[in-house]
Amino acid sequence: MNVILLGPPGAGKGTQAKQLEEEFNLVQLSTGDMLREEVKAGSELGQTAKKIMDAGELVPDDLIIAMISDRMDQAEGKNGVILDGFPRTTPQAEALDAMLTEKNIQLDHVIQIEIAEEIIVARLSGRFGCAKCGAGYHDEFKPTQIEGVCDDCGSTEFIRRSDDNPETVRNRLAAYEKQTAPILPYYAAKGTLQKVDGLGEIDEVYRRVKEIVSGGS
Ligand code: AP5
């Protein structure tokens, strides 16, 4: 099963992808996570991407397409992939179609998580993650079970994303509206787009996502 999760920053794509990955033995391919790894490693791509990400803009299509194409092959031996944060522009959507045809992979579900802007701001301002294993949390909506200790690996070090500040979030939302929202009709026209209400408890939203993926493949 191969799934695309679409939606604005903070819609819950990463959170839902993690749950799908675990339950259905899929591979989460998050272009945002890949870019952050490149930034951490100090690679040439990471250095280019850092400035763009901190400004809340999109990294050029050619760099993203090359990066994701490499990673698609990682899904071998698993039940499929969850594309989280990709595609984000029309050229990326078209490149993905070509990639899927070339690799003989079928796309099963394109899920758009819908969420209001005021909720997004609250979600992103409270987000933090484990510095060691990357597990994601939220000050209010998903705190660690023991304060200051990661539920998954026991680490006591956490990080906040440098692009979660109010100004960059505004730019990320603008980039979503201008460059990513226009791909929704592309998938709607193919008949593969399904919408999910992203408001509600994490598990409640997951039940809605699961209903879609369990029903159609
Ligand atoms: P990326 O990392 O993809 O960021 P994003 O799309 O802005 O999405 P987020 O990770 O912020 O949000 P999410 O929807 O995953 O929400 P999450 O589950 O974490 O991209 C970062 C940057 O990289 C881009 O700005 C761009 O520069 C570049 N980039 C990446 N891909 C690119 C591409 N394809 N092309 C070009 N450039 C690219 O949830 C957020 C918070 O809310 C968490 O704390 C979570 O615990 C909480 N939460 C989640 N669900 C709920 C719920 N139901 N109720 C309460 N809290 C919840």
Written account of the structure:
The chain is an alpha/beta fold and about 220 residues long. The protein contains nine helices and eight strands. The strands form two sheets. A five-stranded parallel β-sheet has the order 2-3-1-4-8, with helices on both faces. Strands 6-5-7 form a three-stranded antiparallel β-sheet. A hairpin with a 5-residue loop joins strand 5 (about 125-130) and strand 6 (about 135-140). Helix 1 (about 15-25) crosses helix 9 (about 200-215) and helix 4 (about 60-70) runs parallel beside helix 5. The chain is globular, with a radius of gyration of 17 Å. The model has no long low-confidence stretch (mean pLDDT about 95).
Report the helical percentage: 40-55%
| Percent in strands | 5-15%
Poorly predicted ranges: none
Strand order of the largest sheet: 2-3-1-4-8
Q: Report the structural category.
A: alpha/beta
Small ligands present: BIS(adenosine)-5'-pentaphosphate
Mean pLDDT across residues:
94
Number of helices: 9
Q: Topology as H/E string? A: EHEHHHEHEHEEEHHEH
* Biggest pleated-sheet summary: 5 strands, parallel
SSE blueprint and pairings:
Blueprint: E1 3-6, H1 13-24, E2 27-30, H2 31-41, H3 44-54, H4 61-72, E3 81-84, H5 90-103, E4 109-114, H6 117-125, E5 127-130, E6 136-138, E7 158-159, H7 166-180, H8 184-190, E8 193-197, H9 202-216
Parallel strand pairs: 1-3, 1-4, 2-3, 4-8
Antiparallel strand pairs: 5-6, 5-7
Helix pairs in contact: 1-9, 2-3, 4-5
BIS(adenosine)-5'-pentaphosphate is lined by residues 7, 9-15, 31-32, 35, 52-53, 56-59, 64, 85-86, 88, 92, 123, 127, 136-138, 141-142, 163, 172, 200, 202, 205.
